[in-house]
């Protein structure tokens, strides 16, 4: 157990998880609390963040959480969130940029404003908050134990799949590229930057499709490994990247997608030759 804690534990670390009240953000927040970290949970709905923090604090663990309102939808809101974080901690070991939105409409009616809003929050908001908090991340970073940034992308940013969510899919491709840019930019500061590219996971954003057991079964049948993702899938990847075991990994886009990103036709030439 001591060995596992040394490799995957995050005791004594302070983390910020944006959009941490629901879905993948909440899964990450719980994983970090279970690993021993103090986790700041922020989203537009402060009461929801407070409720989740109370639930996590009730767990039998060395970690802890606090929840509060925080938005990445405008420069002013990001500045306010930055000030709120700095009022709560003088260092930040882990930043998880999870907050994001989607927009789905048919191709023929997909509006221009869907590009403005989604790219603003999913990409520009992520960059600006990261830039604002780099100082706190640098304070916590050391040669052997860098600070960590995890950006939440999507399998839809890896493969050409939109299903009506055109700006969302493109924004996640941008998140993946931004992750690599920031990994190069921040390496000298002892900050690693990686991204998750999740496939289907139960969340508020996907509830319209996989909010039921039947929906999860149907969608899971379209995933190579045969199921949708679980909190444990997120937790394992989170503790790897944020613990000592992930200290040498930076610039990676980790595909938490059950094999979707590498699925290809198994009979590319065979059918033509038969």
What gyration radius follows from the Cα positions, in whole Å? 19 Å
CATH class: Alpha Beta
Tell me the major beta sheet. 7 strands, parallel
Tell me the overall shape: globular
CATH topology annotation: Rossmann fold
Name some characteristics of this structure.
274 residues; Rossmann fold; seven-stranded parallel β-sheet; 10 helices; 45% helix; globular
Task: Give the topology.
Elements: H1 2-8, E1 14-18, H2 23-34, E2 38-43, H3 46-57, E3 64-69, H4 75-88, E4 94-97, H5 112-140, E5 147-152, H6 166-186, E6 191-196, H7 207-210, H8 213-220, H9 231-242, E7 253-254, H10 270-273
Parallel strand pairs: 1-2, 1-4, 2-3, 4-5, 5-6, 6-7
Explain the overall architecture.
This protein has a single domain, classed as Rossmann fold, CATH 3.40.50.720. It has ten helices and seven strands. The model has no long low-confidence stretch (mean pLDDT about 95). It is α/β, with parallel strands linked by helices. The protein is globular.
Task: Give a summary of the structure in a few sentences.
The protein is built from ten helices and seven strands. The protein has helices at 2-8, 23-34, 46-57, 75-88, 112-140, 166-186, 207-210, 213-220, 231-242, 270-273; strands spanning 14-18, 38-43, 64-69, 94-97, 147-152, 191-196, 253-254. Helix 2 (23-34) packs across helix 9 (231-242).
């Amino acid at each position: 157990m001591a060995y596992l804690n040394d490799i995957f534990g995050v005791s004594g670390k302070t983390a910020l998880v944006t959009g941490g009240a629901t879905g993948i953000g909440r899964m990450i927040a719980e994983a970090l609390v279970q690993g021993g970290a103090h986790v700041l949970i922020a989203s537009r709905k402060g009461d929801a963040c407070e409720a989740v923090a109370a639930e996590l604090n009730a767990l039998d663990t060395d970690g802890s959480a606090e929840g509060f309102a925080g938005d990445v939808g405008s420069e002013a809101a990001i500045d306010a969130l930055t000030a709120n974080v700095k009022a709560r901690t003088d260092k930040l070991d882990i930043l998880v940029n999870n907050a994001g939105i989607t927009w789905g409409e048919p191709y023929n009616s997909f509006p221009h404003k869907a590009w403005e809003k989604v790219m603003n929050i999913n990409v520009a908001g992520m960059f600006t908050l990261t830039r604002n908090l780099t100082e706190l991340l640098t304070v916590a970073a050391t040669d052997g134990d860098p600070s960590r940034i995890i950006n939440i992308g999507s399998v839809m940013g890896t493969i050409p799949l939109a299903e009506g969510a055109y700006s969302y899919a493109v924004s996640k491709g941008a998140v993946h590229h931004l992750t690599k840019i920031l990994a190069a930019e921040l390496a000298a500061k002892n900050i690693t930057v990686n991204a998750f590219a999740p496939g289907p996971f139960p969340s508020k954003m996907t509830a319209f499709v996989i909010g039921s057991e039947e929906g999860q079964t149907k969608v899971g049948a379209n995933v190579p490994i045969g199921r949708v993702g679980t909190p444990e899938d997120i937790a394992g990847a989170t503790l790897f990247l944020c613990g000592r075991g992930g200290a040498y990994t930076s610039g990676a886009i980790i595909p938490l997608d059950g094999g979707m990103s590498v699925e290809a036709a198994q009979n590319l030439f065979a059918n033509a030759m038969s």
